[in-house]
Amino acid sequence: MSLGSNVLGSGVLGTSGGQSAPPGGPGFLAAWVSNIKRVIFGMKKNVANQGIETQLIDINGDPVTTGTTTVNVKGDNGAFAAGTGTVSHEGDGCWQYIPSQAESNYDRITFQFLNASAITASITVFTTHPQSGDNYTRLGAPVGASIVADLTTIKNKFPVNSELHEIDAEGRVRIDDASATLVQQFMDEDSAIKTVLDSIDTRTVTNLVNGRVPADAEAIDGNASAATNLKEHALRAVPVTFAAGGTTTTAVLATVGGGAPNGASNVIYKNAALVFSAPAALKDQRALIQSYNAATNTATITEVAAAVDGTAVAVLV
User: Residues near 69 by Cβ (< 8 Å), separated by ≥ 6?
Assistant: First the structure.
């Protein structure tokens, strides 16, 4: 940040007592008038890396671009002292001084630019306060070092088993897995809720059988015998698939209960019933097995609406 130097001020050269015209002719007079002391505003107080610039000219009004330029600094009502900042020539006689942060820590600062070939230039600056929230003082902090330290202090106000035991560098509260959660504390205090939830947990399915949920029916409408009867009936209703070659009165068995049909007895399936579920032309139709040829797996059945081919599916009861 560089502050300009073209406002107003008073000359450095002159005579005491009665003021006489400066020596050096018209060129010097123009230079003397243009380089009068300036007063500016805007430098931030106690902030580093701020530049202030001025134009150095000689007695003929020409810019001074060479030589060694030094800067004296005076803060408030103190005395001038050699500046500890950095001086540089910016070009065409414009010289810049970057004061140290300590040199900017005054309400009023005077910078005096000195060069053996130039008219001395003085600039007085009235500083302003930084407008950054970084310099605001934190209010009401229980610890004061940082927000994280404050949160840690607040955290310690909670019971040890309240789970508020870990605060990260961003100030976020983390859950401590080593202790019970607040929900668990509530559940432990309400035994009725805990009992019900524990009961539900014991009833969840943990092992599937061929992708299906295993289930045991101990009673139907409170009747254990009904459940037993249902089981026995279900065991006697076995799935049947068919091979091609059947007609509306014959069916060639392919599988019975997932395995090969009985090939040893001609009476094993006699008088059993077939209840078809597919295809659509046979769906929900029933047929009685009148006879069975174990050698060819062919059953003679009561007539149905369509031929029993390889797409047919039924239950043998």
Answer: 56, 87, 89, 95, 113, 114, 115, 118
Per-residue b or e along 25-36, where b marks 16 or more CB atoms closer than 10 Å to that residue's CB: eeebeebbeebe
**Percentage of residues in the chain having pLDDT higher than 90:** 49
Tell me the pLDDT of the chain averaged across its residues. 77
Domain boundary, last residue among 182, 215, 249 = 182
Using CA atoms, how far apart are residues 127 and 42, in angstroms rounded to an integer? 6
158 and 83 share a domain? no
Q: What is the pLDDT of residue 220?
A: 76
Alpha carbon 66 to chain centroid, angstroms: 57
Q: What is the pLDDT of residue 233?
A: 65
The predicted structure's pLDDT at residue 187: 57
Cβ burial, residue 268 (10 Å; 0-12/13-18/19+): middle
**For the segment 217-230, what is each residue's pLDDT rounded down to a tens digit?**
777 778 877 767 77
Q: What is the CATH number of the domain that holds 44?
A: 2.60.40.10
Expressed as residue numbers, the domain containing 303 is 235-316
Same-domain status, 124 and 158: no
Residues contacting residue 238 through CB under 8 Å, at least 6 positions apart: 256, 257, 315, 316
Q: Are residues 265 and 286 in the same domain?
A: yes
Count the residues in the chain. 317
Whether 26 and 115 share a structural domain = yes
pLDDT of residue 39: 73
| Mean predicted confidence (pLDDT) in 172-185 | 54
Domains contained in the chain, number: 3
